[in-house]
């Protein structure tokens, strides 16, 4: 790498890091100011608060990762243009494509980090962030809401009116077992509690009706400990469950939910596809940012930043709109995730062609 490459690459990475270090404390301060009352009210241990803030930092950074990068590239490239440094580079015989190379090298490094962040770090942070929020900040009702009706295999359907993930207790539990299209037995209980020590379930006010050819057999007990074929995750109606799984676990989870005919499969696939669309967004937004800010404009850096913020808002708008469509309808999750990259990729090619001219 030549001096030009090192110069731009260092500015690329340094400005991106500074942008994160600038916005993350602001995000933490605003979030903590909003939640500090409930934290003090619940007397949350200081150690748990620190872990929560760390999880929030990773969660927040991953959520706005492309926008931080986009604005940082516009910022330092506009400064290069205003100082006529880019004109000096290009006047020395360096082509615009050659000038773009250190940006792409920097984008490759950031994209590699985003892959690690999305596949491993962000899922763990998301789990800690959401668990803390439901345990201390959102209240008991927020954690327990969510009626669940799910077919867990070819023969069994389960139902709970609501489930407390902290206590691992579900209320008004029902299991219906079918064979050859006919119900053979039905289990009901007032509540079902998962026991981690032996991976079993305790049922209160247990009642089982076995449907016979001539008459039914009834069995009732005050309490019954048993083992079921479904997992604890099958009872949790949390919509953010896909965010908490690493890539391998998420793929296996989706395969299992597809066999069960889950109605939330679109939401789960969205999370899976986003893990790979984000690194591509890094390259696309880098190219757009360079193409937009590489020329010296009369309005200076402010014009470039205003234009960049508008593009960033449109990017987020498309991502949220099509993500919601895929989660709540039959719209393709793959197309929903990649639509913004396709549209802005085309825009990047057009802007880059005009910048070269």
Protein model, in words:
This protein has 357 residues and is of the alpha+beta class. It has 2 domains: 3-138 and 264-356, no CATH class; 146-236, no CATH class. The protein has 10 helices and 7 strands. The protein has helices spanning 3-41, 46-63, 65-82, 85-91, 96-137, 140-144, 247-260, 265-293, 301-328, 333-356, and strands at 148-151, 156-160, 162-164, 169-179, 182-195, 200-210, 217-226. Strands 1, 2, 3, 4, 5, 6 and 7 form a 7-stranded antiparallel β-sheet that branches. Strand 3 (162-164) and strand 4 form a beta hairpin. The longest helix is centred in the N-terminal third of the chain and has 42 residues, at 96-137. It is elongated, with a radius of gyration of 26 Å.
Number of separate strands: 7
Distance between the termini: 26 Å
* Low-confidence runs of at least 5 consecutive residues: 141-145
Shape category: elongated
In short:
Helices cover 63% and strands 16% of the residues. It has ten helices and seven strands. Helix 7 packs across helix 8 (265-293).
Any chance you could write out the topology, listing elements then pairs?
Blueprint: H1 3-41, H2 46-63, H3 65-82, H4 85-91, H5 96-137, H6 140-144, E1 148-151, E2 156-160, E3 162-164, E4 169-179, E5 182-195, E6 200-210, E7 217-226, H7 247-260, H8 265-293, H9 301-328, H10 333-356
Antiparallel strand pairs: 1-2, 2-4, 3-4, 4-5, 5-6, 6-7
